[in-house]
Amino acid sequence: MADWKRGARRLLYPAYEARVLRRMPDTLPQHVGVMLDGNRRWAKAVGRDTAHGHRAGAANIEPLLGWCDEVGIQVVTLWLLSTDNLNRPAAELEPLLAIIADAVDSLADQRKWRLHPVGALDLLPDEVATRLKAAAEATADVDGMLVNVAVGYGGRREIADAVRSLLHEHAEKGTSLEELAATLDVEHIAAHLYTKGQPDPDLVIRTSGEQRLGGFLLWQSARSEFYFCDAYWPDFRRVDFLRAVRAYALRERRHGV
Question: Which residue of 59, 92, 147, 161 is surrounded by the most CB atoms within 10 Å?
Answer without folding.
Answer: 147
